[in-house]
Give the backbone structure.
Amino acid sequence: MPAGDDVVDGDAPSSAADAAPSADAAEAALSGVLDGTDGDPQCVLCSNDADYFLYDPGSVEKFVCWEHVSPHSAAVDGEEPRPGRPVALSL
Ligand SMILES: [Zn+2]
């Protein structure tokens, strides 16, 4: 019987420090942007009302309509955010 062995049993907390933008951060950014916006936000690519807010920390903060939000370039609500791709929050 080994004495003096400190056996740590249990799950070590995984440090989930990934680079994917979180929805919480996106929502915080969205409320900040909306504070400085008069009226309803519009799509940056056309004149439709925006349906989504694209957010990538430090690089992307823009509004797009449903026609211009690309599921290939954004993590739409409910999908897992991927590093390097903006989060798309539905408005
Ligand atoms: Zn559009």
Q: What stands out?
A: The two ends are 62 Å apart (CA to CA). Strands lie at 52-56, 60-64, 75-76, 87-90. The mean pLDDT is 78.
